[in-house]
Amino acid sequence: MQLFLYNFIVYLILPLTIVKLLYRGIKNRDYLKNWAERFAIYPNHQRDIWKKRKTVWIHCVSVGETKAIYTLLEKFQKKFPSFHFLITNGTPTGRKVELPSSKKIHRSYLPYDANFLVSRFLQIYQPKIGILIEKEIWPNLINQCDQKKIPLLLINGRLSNESFKKYYEFKKFYTPLFNKLSKICVQNSSDKKNFAKLTSNEIRVMGNLKFDQAPPTNTSEKSKLLKKELKINKQIVIVAGSTRDGEEEIILDQIVSMKRQNITLILVPRHPERFSKVESLLKSKKIKFVKRSQSSWVNSTPNVVLGDTMNEIYIYYQLADIVIIGGSFLNYGSQNPIEALKMRKPTIIGPSIYNFKDVVTDAIKSNALVKINRIGELPLVIKKYGNKKNQQLLINNSKKFISKSEGSSNKAFKIISQYF
């Protein structure tokens, strides 16, 4: 009955997805591309092509999940060179994330979770195995895979206490779905505890794939080039990475209040559709700035840089003396701090951390991360970690923390390989 109601709602709102895509396309034109894939519309010859392939399908909703599978994909390519890998996403930014270069790695959007769309998707691509990264629970997708005898694994799973409460309210609906998954592998014991209350499935703790992410091989060279273009010499470079709406202004105000001419602040909004809004903010405050997309035209060292480019967060972090994690100063739950810690950078995070609570808590216990409870503390913390000695202590601790947290890709590889 509950699945019937779910499908009834899906069919009601499906036409509205076109309106939603058009609306999002106004801010980000990438949403206007590849519409057909979202509605499982493919060229007629596709089925014949994919029927001849041994396909592993991995679904990563957005940027973080897609980055997390890079090392895992490399391992699979090396061990199983005859296989094809279909990577599906839910967002344009996720689809743009760089993956290992190969003609056997393919990209597509996952169609909306309507029965007939999911059925066509599976009929066309005919995957031998499906892998869901983190927490992509789509009822029709899970049911269709179960009916078609396609093993479906949840890897790098996570279920915060807040999310668990929502799922638990509809336990009778979700428990049968979780029970149909072939394997559930989660990031930590807290996730295991929450999943265990929703399923009779065996749950295995495997760690977090994001600790095995590595920056692109040319990151150092590109960062040196950017440093030269921005004419940075003795500046303290502060990168506010993956900031969300409202955060750029409060971070900017705190750093401007320091009245330090030896600071260069690089603001990197999380979503490209907000680049123009942040640019307008800087203009309204009459702050001189340069855009990263125009950095080759810089005549003197800027105090503020707008990071208006995609897929360059590692380049910015490589250049940084201090990193501020966006999404953590207003109620967004924080963006991923692991990338900055992996780059061995002194890292500051705000009070809102529910998306990465376990990672942040463990990092704080290891003295690898600095957490502040209010934005007004930022100038004092920046002054403290502008000191090279204090920086190095934090860097040494982050090295140890990252080292003990790595290795989940090997665990995931062994588990998934059993289904090949």
Total of domains = 2
Strand tally, please? 14
| Proportion of residues in helical segments | 40-55%
Radius of gyration computed on alpha carbons:
22 Å
Mean pLDDT: 94
Which class of secondary structure composition applies to the elements? alpha/beta
CATH architecture of the largest domain: 3-Layer(aba) Sandwich
* Overall shape: globular
Per CATH, what is the topology of the largest domain? Rossmann fold
CATH class of the largest domain: Alpha Beta
Give me the number of helical elements: 21
> Low-confidence parts, pLDDT < 50 over ≥5 residues?
none
The largest sheet has its strands arranged as 3-2-1-4-5-6-7
- Content of β-strand: 15-25%
Distance between the termini: 35 Å
* Biggest sheet features: 7 strands, parallel
CATH superfamily of the largest domain: 3-Deoxy-D-manno-octulosonic-acid transferase, N-terminal domain
What does this structure look like?
This protein has 420 residues and is of the alpha/beta class. The protein folds into 2 domains: 15-213 and 407-417, 3-Layer(aba) Sandwich (Rossmann fold), CATH 3.40.50.11720; 219-405, Glycogen Phosphorylase B (Rossmann fold). The protein is 45% helix and 15% strand. It contains 21 helices and 14 strands. Strands 3-2-1-4-5-6-7 form a 7-stranded parallel sheet. Strands 10-11-9-8-12-13-14 form a 7-stranded parallel sheet, with helices on both faces. The longest helix is centred in the C-terminal third of the chain and has 18 residues, at 388-405. The chain is globular. The protein starts with a helix and ends with a helix. The mean pLDDT is 94.
